[in-house]
Amino acid sequence: MAVSKKKSSPKKTKAVGRPTKDNGVNVKEALIQAGVELLENTSLEDISLRKVAAHAGVSHVACYHHFENKHALFSAIAEIGFQKYFETYQKELEKTDQDFKGRYRALGWTYFQFIMTNRQFARIMFGGTGVDAKTHPTLLAVSRRTYRQLHEIIRMGQNLGHLEKGNTREKTLASWAMIHGIAMLFLEGRLQMKNDIQEMEKFIQTVTEYAFIGMKSK
Predict the structure, then answer these.
(1) What b/e readout covers 13-34, taking b as 16+ CB neighbours within 10 angstroms?
(2) How far apart are CA 107 and CA 86, in angstroms?
(3) pLDDT less than 50: residues of the chain
(4) Are 212 and 170 in contact (CB under 8 A)?
């Protein structure tokens, strides 16, 4: 009696150049995560798409399928960083009375704390990496939201009589320069972090408050 041979199904071949990754992991997300991890210990100048692809466990062809150059990757990382920042701010805001002073202090502390605890994101979001936000509309929109948040807080202070009316844009920029400047001094090691987190928070809030003291209504 003849035994019928079971036909084996043909093996599927992967299309050349098509990005793939096992376990259903999204390749683009894996590349972004690999970029974030590399940034923790690698300078921006030493980052390359080939290194990112190798770290993510995909071919460099897969990397170029999603990002034309490393600045496109940096843009995607920056977008995620801004989203993380907004989430952190909302959580900090819930601890306040959400009045003018509460919002102003929460934004200053969130901005500082985010930069110090997410340095790999901060280096791209605020570090001048050569990423032109104008060529990345999504990044441009999300980055402008940080300015709008502070602008709304300043306008709120003016409407409630805490700050003098007028020059809202200039007052917003002055506040941003103060908050960003103190964060950069710590990030670059010009100032040293205090061991007590509560003491550190009080210090940062005191410094940022000086920004609006000069704008107070007389």
Answers:
(1) eeeeeebebeeeeebbebbbbb
(2) 10
(3) 1, 6, 8-20, 22-24
(4) no
